[in-house]
Amino acid sequence: MMMNTIRHHPDDAMLLAHASGHMEAGTSLVLASHLELCESCRERRRELDALGGLMLDTLEPAALAADALARTLAHIDAGTPSPPARRIDTPPPLPLGAEWPAALAHCSATRWRWIAPGMRWSRVTVPESPRANVFLLRIAAGRYLPQHSHHGLELTQVLYGRFHDGRALYGPGDFDLADGEIRHQPVVQDGSECICLTAVDGRLCFEGVMARLFGVLAEV
Amino acid sequence: MAASEPPLPGKRTPALAIVPPVGNVDEDWSAALCALAQQQDLQAFARLFAHFAPRVKRYLMLAECPEAQAEELAQEALATVWRKAGLFDPCRAAASTWIFTIARHLRVDALRRRQGLGLGSGDSESIDEASPGFELADLAQPAAEDRLDAEQQHERLRRAFALLSPQLRQVLSLSYYDEAPHTRIAAELGIPLGTVKSRVRLAVAQLRRLLE
Questions:
Q1: Which one of A39, B163, B192, B201 is most buried, by most CB atoms within 10 A?
Q2: B205: closest CA of chain A, how far (Å)
Q3: ipTM, 2 decimals?
């Protein structure tokens, strides 16, 4: 339903980082959320998985232990312990028509917390990488985030509503990558609030107004 | 010569007589995986093991796994191949691609453990996510008949990759093999770190053009 309207996609360098296993867990989640909605990016991603298969296939074989096959078969016979059940927290409520990405299913998220008038957030905890900085921002129609720049990568997937960052308009399903060179000031469009899933690669590091804003968060 | 011998009674061997020897790169690994899934074919598994386990081990060693750990994880990867063979779909992916996704998952896990982020729980379970069959939004996949056989696509990819310039081949290889690919690519190619991403994009774009 949203597929036709997606206009902003991850570039090949980012898809390759994902396909080759070089993305940090938090940013991977945001990218996976985009792939759920975007068939064209899934196709590009499949090509890069296939390239990974070729890369594996063409590697020079390493010498294995003499009993490697026997040990593997013994390992198979022994079976594996069944994994513990995933803990799925109830995610914070969403407006009608919005859906959580399936990629978040194994994560937990806090309730919506107030940051500033018209702005709330929810911290997402990624079990396989507790230090990952992943959060949801929920911003009311017509509100804007103070201008900020980035230290490291900031990946955003729009889940609901629309914002304009001074460069382009972003709507549901759109993906955005901002790095240290970009200063932007996202403005949520009139008519509807906007909810985004965002991951910051590395430490969450805001300056100026954003630092004060997130300073408030820390005290909540 | 084998070709001049009469077929063994009760066996349809002419096709088999021209099958390349075990371990040849032209072996139909998808068929081997399907035989494993359907009949628990030990011979098929042994051939898959002989071909892929040493390559998975090399892949993990390039990712800076100590050799003993790479050995252990390569065995684990192939044990996973056995257990999950039923999830392999030859219309979706070539066998090497499917095994790559398993190896990639183990590599990411090993890296997290080295960084002290590893969590015991969830690791074995999330191997499911490493298999393309488990990836998200399967509902929107094109129908199988709309796609070329995955092994044929893989062969096209192999030929297209061979046509790339050595430098772009190196960019792509390092992207998959190296632990810090961008730094390494910059060093190997003698280009500024800031231009690596555009070189990566160029390599992917050229490969895609060759595939068209």
A1: B201
A2: 8
A3: 0.82
